[in-house]
Write a structure and sequence with these properties.
single chain; transferase; 11 helices; 362 residues; D-inositol 3-phosphate glycosyltransferase; Glycosyltransferase_grp1; glycosyltransferase activity; six-stranded parallel β-sheet; alpha/beta
């Protein structure tokens, strides 16, 4: 669905319940990107439209098939697109919107505001720069971190998605966590939905901070010897064909397929070096699947400091998985604790909070 920009108006309806015109800025969308920010933007925009608001997403990615919100495509080519996208957004006329809600790339928007400019920091690029491999990528992350600092000053109101992110932006007071659809991600209706053999589910990239390659290595070396029928299902686009015995590449799944994969798995594992939040943790917990994770910023917050998940250092992931697959009572206890914790991260609650921020000065 492609939208034309609204025209500016002289006066605005002050009624607190009137629909709002919202422009969401996100370089990423799930049409062509695997970044979690894009998936969250898609969910937020969809829910806002369901509530009667008029939403356009401004993105470098093409429209998402079947999306109910509008789409304004900022098409770029060549290098440094993430930086050039911000400059392109600055040149857009946004005066007809009530709210700009940026999920990145708004740091040049001095004096380019609508009635309300909200910025969500989905993590810290400074934190990611500490762990990323390669000088070029580390430099890029530091520059993006500086842009996040500038963006937090430009916006009328800035929020972070987890308390740990405030380490880098202590002047940002509010935490608005990401949210998921608890109707889509929910426990199965019966034990028969689980696979008859042990399955560990992973959602993320094979290489980089998600550590999919390391998870597969430990699975083959430590889990398979103790559970010969076990499988590692990897929802990832870049798993090599020779990933190892028992490792299955599922590729990219649609919403229904992903929800089904969670309900069928015995354990979910995402041993990421860094997550600003970690939406897959919540999706798994809401689906009644026990979670194994490394103690990164997002996992610690989502799991309530390990009360609702099993947190272990990266080099202990394989042993933790092997132990958990053999302990049904421990899995059941973690699944119960995770399902309860997931209720704090409903999409409805997240959108409620953003609506409050949108209307605070409109």
């Amino acid at each position: 669905m492609t939208s034309t920009p609204p025209t500016a108006v002289e006066t605005r309806d002050p009624a607190p319940s009137r629909p709002l015109r919202v422009a969401m800025i996100s370089y990423y969308l799930p049409s062509t990107s695997k970044q979690g920010v894009g998936y969250q933007v898609h969910e937020l925009a969809t829910e806002l439209v369901r509530r009667g608001h008029d939403v356009d997403v401004i993105s470098e990615c093409p429209p998402v098939a079947g999306a109910v919100y509008g789409h304004r495509h900022v098409e770029l080519s060549g290098s440094l697109r993430t930086f050039r996208f911000a400059a392109a957004v600055r040149r857009l006329d946004l005066s007809g919107y009530d709210v700009v809600h940026a999920h990145g790339d708004d740091y040049w928007m001095w004096r380019r505001r609508t009635d309300r400019h909200v910025r969500t920091l989905h993590g810290s690029c400074f934190e990611e720069a500490r762990r990323i491999r390669g000088l070029k990528e580390r430099t890029r992350m530091v520059l993006l971190g500086m842009s996040e600092v500038l963006a937090s000053v430009v916006a009328d109101h800035t929020v972070v998605v987890s308390p740990g992110t405030r380490r880098w932006y202590p002047w940002v007071r509010d935490v608005v966590p990401n949210g998921i659809d608890l109707h889509r991600f929910r426990p199965g209706t019966g034990a028969g939905e689980r696979t008859p053999h042990p399955v560990v589910l992973f959602v993320g990239a094979w290489v980089g901070r998600k550590n999919g390659d390391e998870l597969a290595r430990q699975f083959v070396a430590q889990v398979r010897p103790r559970h010969p029928e076990a499988e590692l299902w990897m929802v990832s686009r870049d798993v090599p064909e020779d990933a190892g015995p028992g490792v299955r590449a599922l590729g990219a799944l649609d919403d229904a397929q992903l929800a089904d994969a969670y309900r069928r798995a015995w354990v979910f594992c995402l041993p990421s070096d860094y997550e600003g939040f970690g939406i897959p943790y919540v999706e798994a917990m809401a689906s009644g699947v026990p979670v194994v994770a490394t103690p990164n910023v997002g996992a610690r917050y989502v799991s309530d400091e390990g009360r609702a998940a099993l947190l272990t250092p990266l080099d202990g992931v394989g042993a933790a998985l092997a132990d958990l697959l053999g302990d049904a009572s421990r899995r059941a206890a973690l699944a119960e604790a995770g399902a309860a914790r997931a209720q704090d991260f409903s999409l409805a609650r997240t959108v409620d909070r953003y609506e409050e921020l949108y209307r605070s000065t409109v």
